[in-house]
Amino acid sequence: MHIASDCTPNQADAYVAGLIRGEPWAGLELTKALKVHTPGTVRLACGITDLMRQSLSRVYQLRFKDSYNTSEYLIYYPEPNLQGQLMVNTTQNVVRALEKQLSTLANNPQDLASKVYGLQVGNGFCLMCNTITFMSIPMDIPSTANIHKGFKFWFGEGSWAPIKSYIDTNISGVSPNAAMLCGVAGICGVCPSRCDDCKHYPTEEFQAYELLSLRDSKLCVGCNKSNLTSISVPKLDKQRLVAARRRFDQLEGGRNGR
Amino acid sequence: MGGKFKLYRIGSDPEFGFAKIADWTPVLVPAAEIMTVPKKVALASFIGMDSHTLGGHGTIQTTAELRPPPTHNIRQHLYYIAYGLSEVGKYLETRSRLQGVIPFALPILEKECLGGHIHVSGFVPEPETKLMHENMNMTLMNNQFHAWNENSQGKGIDSATIAKIQSEYMSKALAGELTTPQLFLRAMNYLMLPLELWIQPWSEREARFETYKGQEGGNYFIRWLHTKRPIMPLYDDWAYLHMEYRTPSTWLLHPWLAYVYFAMAKLSILNWGQIWEAMLDAAPIEFPGGTDNCNSEAYAILKQRLKQLEVGGLKMSNDIKDLWKALGICQQSREAWFANKSAGIDIEAWRSLL
Fold first, then answer.
1. Complex ipTM above 0.95?
2. Which residue, among A123, A175, A136, has the nearest Cα to A22 in the 3D structure?
3. Single pTM value for the model
4. Minimal CA–CA distance to B120: which of B76, B199, B185, B190?
């Protein structure tokens, strides 16, 4: 893999591997390399909003065109000195596409959640913790051939079997149906992914908005709907009012009205 | 003029907090962690959140509030509040993730001030005020004219006429003849401020007032709102006012405490003429600072003012006839209510009204 002219392929590999493990230094080094040394690197003044930055700040986005042998990539690195900059070395049409995407997001911040979700699933990020935990699963699988399939799986292609068997062997103890969650919901096997209220896991038919509910509030859509805010004002007729008046008369000042 | 008020409705948006008890001390649990819905939903719902995000919790909404519909009968309003609090209690009791979380209603919880704002709407026989609000889109606060409705504009009156009307309005207002927000606040404070100073736990109430120090004359303790004018042809020439009276700390702790606040507010409105005259004669009570407990002093002022008003004959409605009984209950119980700081809102007492 060749990223920057003064990086050796081994260094570049180490940076990317570090980034995949979620280690900030790797992102910094990689970004530096891109910024300073790579011919053709384009820095986008993307007008990223505070809201977007806040939501994206914990996310390193890495887009592989072709598994590990990429010629196109996208990195977001939100350190203060590089805040909000998207860096890409690629052809002009990709730059234009990115600009368009960012300007759409800036104008429609309400779409951000689903965009982030899309990016996370696309890039293999856990929806709950925003790390690339489950992306590292296929990376750890010894067979090179399966890595390729593993990546493609997240884009809706390829074989599920190698990842499932890896998860079943290694982390199914953490969460009883971790494999299903990783495969269907985009939630890593380590994160608590049950609804905090009803304790149910997501089902295989889970839709994107249900995942967002689980990610944002740790509650499934059903429990979120029966939230305190959904309670409406009671209907009150004269009889109930008179009865309430009578009960008020009997109410004393002590604890529990006694 | 400046002494008549035709009550339309009385309402409220009382605040409360959620807390867990640690070492007998309530520790705030941000409301946003309990009402996990988009902010725009929680800022408008019957049981929802207040929009402010103070107190070191970043951008998370910390304070919960009820938004019961306004009513003419305060007992009906209290019923809505009882229902809301009962549902809050039920929700907390049935969610395992919220085990140990209880609703709180003290004037301040950690750094979060909890208000028991009371809304009053009605008509005053002041064509000048109607003209000022509805045609010129202005109101007078602290001897300065402000926009009455920031999202609206005046009706194209030329500047010379505006200056003339403003000058006349100002001189009448300074003479206490018009119901400006500031005078409305003073009139409401006539009974309600001594009540607040007496009845709330001193240190928490003092901490809440300290937070808003310097804003007594500003618009923290009074806000003018511009809800739709109700259709009441009899009062077509009168000005329609909707004021949010914000001096009271939250009173959700116990139904009798809430009743006293509402009954006293309604008593003030029903006897607006007397209150207005008395308010103009009396020096406003200073918001006391420091740590000296003035509960009993405030109680004495309240009693004396009520007695004076009674001499002239007080107008009462059926729903506030228990005011004296409620004052007695509060006098007996207030220390016990506030002594146990880790007890939270008396949900059972509220529930017993349903």
1. no
2. A136
3. 0.72
4. B185
